[in-house]
Amino acid sequence: xxxxxxxxxxxxxxxxxxxxxxxxxxxxxxxxxxxxxxxxxxxxxxxxxxxxxxxxxxxxxxxxxxxxxxxxxxxxxxxxxxxxxxxxxxxxxxxxxxxxxxxxxxxxxxxxxxxxxxx
Length: 119
Fold this sequence. Notes:
2 domains, elongated
């Protein structure tokens, strides 16, 4: 079937081959990353699932956001006077939240892509 595609210039065939190669590269990168994660998690617990990891990550982002809220309240009450600490904490919470939202958006995009697939 691929041999009949793009018999004139070969552009479509080359595009398909390139897409297959990119997909194979992505698979190998995912395999490398998952093996690295598995190697890191062996020291902590071997039975952590994706759900557990997701819950822990969400809890970490939530705790950072709560800490930044507390430090802002400390400024209002006069307990905190180090503005470098305030700026660093608020920026860290902001970056963590933006990263969590980017991951969420990627999951939603992946879900939509899977739902568009024909079986």
